[in-house]
Structures are given as C-alpha cells and as structure tokens.
Write a structure and sequence with these properties.
By secondary structure, the chain is mainly alpha-helical. It is 54% helix and 0% strand. The chain is built from 5 helices and no strands. The protein is elongated. The termini are far apart.
Length: 136
Amino acid sequence: MSASNSAPQEHAQPHPGAYSGGYPGAPPPYPGFIDPGYAGSVPRERTPGEHLAQQAMILGAVGLFAAGIILGPLAIYYARKAEKLNAPATAGKVLGWITTILNVTGLALFLYFSWVVLDFILYSEPNDVWGGGLAT
C-alpha cells in the first residue's frame, strides 16, 4: 500500500456548473428561477381584458346554480368585452351560453306544465278528475 492512497483527501471540488446552495448534489435551478422569498418577484398586473374574462367565467359558473336567466347573458356580455380587449374568454362565453340555454329551457318547461296543470284544474268537471266513477 502506498502512502499517497492512505492519506486523507482534500474536499473534492464541485464541477463548474454545480449549484452552490441547498442540499449536496442538488441540481441547479431551471433558467429564469426566481426565489419566492426574493423581494423583486412581484406578480404582473392583470390586464382589463383578463379581469373581464375571469368575471365572465365566474358569472357563467354561478349562473348554473342561481339566477342564471340574468347571469348567463351577463357572462356572454363580459366575454365579448374581454375578447375586444384581446383576452381569451372562451370559457366564460361557453358557460354563459350553456347557462342561458338551460335556464330559458327550464323556464319554458315550467310555464308549459303550469299551464297544463291549471288548464286541467280549471276546465275539468269534478267527476272527470277521478274518472267519473266515484261520485255516482
């Protein structure tokens, strides 16, 4: 055994592209990495078109559950406004149309069946309601 192999070795130098912080052997961060704790990492401001697109999507989604006859057309209106400002608003527009169509169809069915029931109640004879055989 030679004396040079048994002597303690100095710390090995990392390769030139090695990341100097964090855990040993950790890969370097991807290009453009910004530390979340860095004071300069401020999120960018949303454009007015992006804000309108988000409002359209929220109105369309909420309209599926409540007040859709009002919120559906509002979602379509906001989506068109957002698209005029070059912001993609497809989700808000689709949700607005679905909300509007479902609510108009539901309202039409409700009115039709209400008319049928009222017509049956108001314009039928008392004996005709039960088949005419009960009150003879």
